[in-house]
Amino acid sequence: MKSSKVNTKYNNRSWVRNISAGLALMLAAVTLLQAGTANSKEAELAMTTMEAEIIAEIDQMLFEEELSLEETVMMEVEEELAIEVNIYDDNNELIASGNPEYDSELRKLMNKADYLSELGNQQYFKISK
């Protein structure tokens, strides 16, 4: 069997290697030229301004979140401190009510009474004789 003759003009390995190297050099040159024009002073200044605006917005959001977190904690502490105590006698009549932190008499009655229940910031006690 006779094989057909292949055109060897374009199949030479060194010719293909030279073309590949030439294309690689041209691609590298184009990339370097584009990178050089992208690093102009105006582009850096515009990007710096944009970055500064974004950083300022992020700082503002973080500051607002910190304030809201502090406010939330303060509200929780105030709710815990604002406990209302109601003390009843054997006939289920209200003897005293208020905040035991500010009223020492109420605190004494609360220490003598039995704990019944708690609902929200209201605590209920009953004094048995």
Derived structural class? alpha+beta
Oligomeric category: single chain
Query: How far is it from the N-terminal to the C-terminal residue, by CA?
Result: 124 Å
Report the mean per-residue pLDDT as an integer: 78
Adjacency order of strands in the biggest sheet: 2-1-4-3
Succession of helices and strands: HHEEHEE
Account of the 3D structure:
The chain is an alpha+beta fold and about 130 residues long. The protein has two domains: about 25-80; about 85-125, no CATH class. The protein is built from three helices and four strands. It has a four-stranded mixed beta sheet, with helices on one face. A hairpin with a 2-residue loop joins strand 3 and strand 4. The protein is rod-shaped. The chain starts with 12 loop residues before the first helix and ends with a strand. The model has no long low-confidence stretch (mean pLDDT about 80).
